[in-house]
Every structure is written in structure tokens, then in C-alpha cells.
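[Discussion] Sanity-checking designs against the backbone

I'm trying to build intuition for which residues belong where. Below is a C-alpha cell string of 261 positions. I'd appreciate it if someone posts a full sequence so I can compare it with mine line by line.
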């Protein structure tokens, strides 16, 4: 059955998986012909990346199948599930093949490590030394000692350079540590100043509130005094309102008596 007749997305995913399977087959065939272990390792990494991509596409294929399960007939669902199982089976075969090649590669590296690359040269050196005269052996030994001294001198230089770099790094770290300490101290000072400023603002706020209360009370007293004065002036005969201390009572209106002669 053509997957494009069921879903264009399924057909596209199936095409991508088929391309990856073809690339994996060609990649493992190429791996069989590679003799260098480093190239084999790189080839295995590339194949592993392709297998990861294939696994992701198979999961995506499975999600699409489950989303369409309710819209398809049972026969179509069965065919799609079998298609997914065949993909998983083929991918697992490539995974097993990759593990086999990786194990062989690790074994080969282990053998090379224990055998060593210079075993074949040792016999050649013995045969060469047996055919040399004493003077040649002495000269050859001196030459090897000179080369060894040069290697030691280079190693000493590397050690000295490393020590110098370490000293410079330590000095830079110390300077950075001191700078960080100064920054921390400055931050503490700023924090303390902000705290003191907050307390000062609160005190000023309390003083302002107290001053406002006093001003309001004085305002009420002044208003009361003015009201009393106004009432006294309007109605001086009102005995219910007491005279304000320091303020003279209003002058009584004098009646002019005319005495006609």
C-alpha cells in the first residue's frame, strides 16, 4: 500500500527513514574496508548520529500512526504497525552491527597498546649493533645521549614555562580576588549607607507628620480665637462667651443726653 494515499506526512517520514537505512548500509560496507583505527572511530560516530536521527523519525512515525488510528480502518492500522515494527527491527540490526564493530575496534586498540609500536625495531637495532665497531658504538651512544640531553632540556624549558604561566595565573587570580574583596566591601558600604538613608527618611517622615499635627492644632486654635472675636463683635452683650485674655472688651455705646436749656 502506498503511504502517500494515507498521509503525506507518513510518506515523507518513511522516505527519510529509507534514505537513512540506505546510508547506514553503505556506511557499514565502507567501514569494512577502512584499516586505520582513527578513521574507523570517525566513521562509527557518523553512523551513530544517523541511527539517532533514524530513531527520532521512527518515534515521529509512531506518533502520526497513533493520531490517525481512529480515522483508519483496522487493516490499515495493522499495516502501519507492521511497517513500524520492520523499521525498528532494521534499526536494531544496525545498532547490533555498530556494537560489534566498536568492540572489535576497542580490542584492536588494546592489542596495539600492549604490543607497542617499536617491537619490530628492537631486533633491527640488535642486528645493527652487532655489525658496528666499538668506536661506532661509542659515537652512536654519544649521539643518543646528546639527543636525550636535548629532550631533557626541552622538557625543563616546558616545565619552567609552565611554572611561569602558573605564577602569572596565581598573581592574576590574587589581583582578581583582591578586586572582588574591594567590590564586596564597597557593596557593604553602599548597603549600610542605603540602610542609614532609609532610617533618616523614616525619621524625617515622622517629624513632618508631627509638624503637620502641630500646625493643624495651631490652625484650629487660631480659627477658634477668630470665631470668638467675631461673635463678640457681633453680639457684645452675650454673656455666654468669656472675654479673651489680653483682648479689651468692646466699648459700650454711649448715649448722648441732651439737656435743653
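Best answer:
Here's mine. Compare freely.
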Amino acid at each position: 500500500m502506498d503511504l502517500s494515499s494515507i498521509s503525506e506526512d507518513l510518506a515523507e517520514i518513511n522516505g527519510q527513514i529509507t534514505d537513512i537505512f540506505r546510508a547506514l548500509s553503505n556506511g557499514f560496507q565502507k567501514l569494512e574496508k577502512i584499516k586505520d583505527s582513527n578513521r574507523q572511530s570517525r566513521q562509527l560516530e557518523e553512523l551513530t548520529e544517523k541511527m539517532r536521527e533514524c530513531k527520532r523519525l521512527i518515534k515521529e512515525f509512531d506518533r502520526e500512526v497513533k493520531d490517525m488510528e481512529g480515522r483508519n480502518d483496522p487493516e490499515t492500522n495493522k499495516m502501519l504497525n507492521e511497517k513500524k515494527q520492520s523499521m525498528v527491527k532494521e534499526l536494531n540490526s544496525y545498532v547490533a552491527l555498530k556494537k560489534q564493530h566498536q568492540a572489535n575496534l576497542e580490542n584492536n586498540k588494546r592489542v596495539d597498546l600492549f604490543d607497542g609500536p617499536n617491537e619490530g625495531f628492537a631486533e633491527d637495532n640488535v642486528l645493527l649493533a652487532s655489525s658496528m665497531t666499538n668506536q661506532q658504538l661509542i659515537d652512536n651512544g654519544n649521539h643518543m645521549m646528546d639527543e636525550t640531553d636535548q629532550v631533557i632540556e626541552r622538557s625543563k624549558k616546558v616545565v619552567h614555562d609552565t611554572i611561569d604561566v602558573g605564577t602569572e595565573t596565581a598573581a592574576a587570580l590574587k589581583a582578581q580576588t583582591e578586586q572582588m574583596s574591594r567590590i564586596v566591601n564597597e557593596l557593604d558600604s553602599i548597603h549600610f549607607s542605603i540602610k542609614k538613608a532609609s532610617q533618616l527618611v523614616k525619621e524625617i517622615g515622622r517629624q513632618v507628620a508631627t509638624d503637620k499635627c502641630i500646625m493643624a492644632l495651631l490652625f484650629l486654635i487660631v480659627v477658634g480665637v477668630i470665631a470668638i472675636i467675631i461673635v463678640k463683635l457681633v453680639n457684645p452683650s452675650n454673656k455666654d462667651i468669656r472675654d479673651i485674655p489680653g483682648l479689651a472688651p468692646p466699648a459700650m455705646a454711649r448715649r448722648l443726653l441732651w439737656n435743653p436749656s
